[in-house]
Amino acid sequence: MRSEASLYPLMTRNLDGNCAKYLKQVRTRVSDFLSTSLEKGVAMGEFRDLDIQQTSNVLFALVNGMLRQRTFGRADDQGIRKAAVDFCRACLTPKGN
């Protein structure tokens, strides 16, 4: 399983049919969820004004990286989770909060 997971980025470039379509749908749903959440947070004043699409991409990459680290058994779940939350809070919240 781990060797297959390590090839995931290479494998997805050559996928055809239902698997590639499903992976694209998952990415779209997650990206849409992140973008909508960021838009709502900005509108409510919980997040500073930011580039929604690019921030969504960064958050997607962060989560994806965390999942990959966990897959490979290379991350302390509690430590990386806390670091990710601290990072997001520092980057997203308006100054002075």
Write structural notes for this entry:
This protein is mostly helical and 97 residues long. The chain has helices at residues 2-6, 8-13, 17-43, 52-71, 77-92. The chain has one domain. It contains five helices and no strands. The radius of gyration is 16 Å and the shape is flat.
Helical percentage: over 70%
Q: Provide the residue-averaged pLDDT.
A: 82
Question: What overall form do the CA principal axes indicate?
Answer: flat
Order of helices and strands: HHHHH
Percentage of β-strand residues: under 5%
Main beta sheet strand tally, sense and closure: none
Cα Rg: 16 Å
The structural class is: mainly alpha
Distance between the termini: 43 Å
Number of H- or I-type helical stretches: 5
Outline the low-pLDDT stretches: 1-7
Number of strands: 0
Write the layout of secondary structure elements.
Elements (H helix, E strand, L loop, with lengths): L1 H5 L1 H6 L3 H27 L8 H20 L5 H16 L5
Helix pairs in contact: 3-4, 4-5
Describe this protein with a few key phrases.
97 residues; mainly alpha
Offer a quick outline of the entry.
The chain is mainly α and 97 residues long. The protein is 76% helix and 0% strand. The protein has one domain.
